[in-house]
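Lab manual, section 2.4: Encoding a predicted structure.

Procedure: take the sequence of the chain (828 residues), apply the prediction step described in section 2.3, and record the output as structure tokens. A sample record is shown.
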Amino acid sequence: MTQLPGSGTWTAARADCTPYRTASTTTSRLTTPSRRSRSEATPSILGQSDSHDVVCAVSEARGVTPTVGIATVDLSLGEVTLSQICDNQSYVRTIHKLQLACPSRIVFMPSACSPNEPSTFFSLVQRLIPEAEMSSHDRSAWSESAGIEYIEHLAPEGDIGSIKVAIQGKYYAICCFSAAMKYIDRQFNLSFSPQSLRIRYQPSEDTMMIDISAMQSLEVMRNLKSAKSKECLFGLLNHTLTPMGSRVLRNNMLQPPTDFDGFIKTRYDALEEMVTNEEMFHEIRKALKLFHDAEKTLTKLVIIRNVTGVSAVEEQLNHILMIKSFLESVPDLYRALHPAKSDLLVKIRNLCQPETTVPILLNIKRVIEPDVTYMKSPLDLRNQRAFAVKSGISGMLDVARQTYRELTEAIHAYSDVINEQYRVAATLKFDNRRLYWFRIPTVDLDKDIIRQDFINVIPKKNHMECQTLNLVKLNQRLLDTSNEIVVRSDAAVRDLVKELRRQVSPLFRICESIALVDMISSFGQITTTRDYVRPNMEDTLALKSARHPILDKKMASEYTPNDYYSAEQHRFHCVTGCNMSGKSTYIRSVALLQIMAQIGCFVPAEFASFPIIHNIFARISTQDNIEANLSSFGVEMREMAFILKNIDNKSLAVIDELGRGTSTRDGMAIAMAISEALLNTRASIWFATHFVELARVFADRIGVLNLHLLSSTSVGEGGLPQLTMLYKADAGTVDDENHYGIALARAIGMPQSFINCAETVANDLRKRRESNRQSSDAYKEIHRRRLALNLYEAINQAKKSSNKETISGYLKRLREQYMVRLQEIEEM
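Recorded output:
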């Protein structure tokens, strides 16, 4: 719901499609794209640290169930993702996929973004992704035949067949790819070398959807209080050693896979082998430390820019040196993976085998000196570029190098002359802007001498940075010689770059393999240090002694573990408890553990079993939204409308304190109505509330399990009751006869007169409630039926158990519990 500015009238504002984010919804302009700094809003929420140039082209087929094509081109990573989504009228999945891509530019067809009558989809994207620049491209650019030609020309030869099979019938996705490539060519004057672009089709059905507000409130990618804090799920799991591994981890956490056999199981097997083979694990971690961000380097190599000159040749030389360093590091990882037996690690090892890397490395060493490596300091990098190309390839190049060597020696000799002449301890330094300069302690120099003989003086606290006229002249001669070396190296470098572009496809596959093994080794690091267990993937969610992953690390042994159970007969969990008893932590834990399990990580528990979940929703935050003119209750209702519109039986929802933003009566009524609707979806619901009456009303419903967080009451100082939180979940509703809210108010120092009055009112309300209880016979019959259904489900679950040794003891305990509970019902 949205309030019109300047009026008291409320109007519906597409409540089913607006709660994707809590960032500003300022309308962005339709502009011609230009290079600019990206907005921090969405990337910070999603944990993206490095900037990307991402161009998305989108096109929709209007109808009752709109089909939307998306082509995402990441210019920083040389990667294209094609998708075609059968969405609903609110474009939920399309908006979600665009938000996860964090595009810098979104390209539409001209008809979609007409100033007079923009489409609904364009208006939604403009409002919900304000940090992206909106643009349009000519209708002629959206061509299926042109899109297929781009795929045949740019995709690696071995991938073209599988890509064509995947995109068969995906007309809109192919047209979007054509438009995106033509837009990049026109706006940036960029093209890609043939058979060098990674292109994949990504269906929307094979990944879990976690809406943006759930990511934010669950602290999946970023801590709510501090963006720099590592106290979030990504910060906990990110022990990767390469930028490539960090990106893969981020992408998996934003969209966890739902294919157990294809992705999750193979990752479990690889992770289990790593944590059981300690020597192999340490060797893998050691080998991963040697890698640069080769993925970005390869992308820059295959992008063809219409730029020439010294800087362009220097850049290509840097890229070649980085690729050489990368290829020299791959054999260490190959040797580290030698003992591997799991399918995934064996596949990664085969991709890194010497037969793939050695020919490319030898090809580089035919032109580049074998002992030249990529260096980070400006002076070392300049020297390495100067002597990178082998001697003997060009006579003029060798002469220029000799001149460069002599000039370098002359500059160092001149530094000794300065020290002798002025009796100072000058240190020779280098940077790319000033080239060589002196650092001289200020105590060694007279101010008059400084004014007479030194130029470009920059005073510092204990020293000064300066040059002399002779040094500037030597620098200029050195720069001219260095440029001549680079230009004369151009012919050899240009031919080598052409060769590398033809061999780039297997190198990209090696990068992807390294990133994946880095992510799994990151899981291994946290698994071995925190004592995690391998989950099972079954139809039932069952966790024994599970721990909140973030608080478990922070609190260590002080954290109290809890059990979780969710199945067809217990799918709606109504959690009650005292203030500060741990209700929110309890329900958030299950969502975070589900994400960990589906990305292939072990979880903090003694035993864990999870179903495959396709959607995670969360309604937790109590913040208002000033930009959208919504109060905290307005935000709450908008987000609940979104959840109710999109939740299904393969979803998990975490809802905390629904209805607290309005009056008690209305809040209770809304909470009950929404609970009824959620119960009918057959989703796994974890619902924390202070409305104890709600828990009691739903206690007799099939599928509802009432839980409460335990607390104990004792007599404190002065004979007053003292409340102690145990942070342990148990069946049933909280006993509100102890008036835990009043006890908390007393503990923080409220006057006794107010406390006495509150207790009188609370006791009166309790007596009225007890007098309205339903008849004893009907009450007992409902509980008998429910007990029998629970027993039936428990026996069915026992049948599926693979552990036959413990099944007999389990059935005996089950019978005893059944008899005890039946006796309790009869005594009501």
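Check your result against the sample. The first helix runs from residue 41 to 45.
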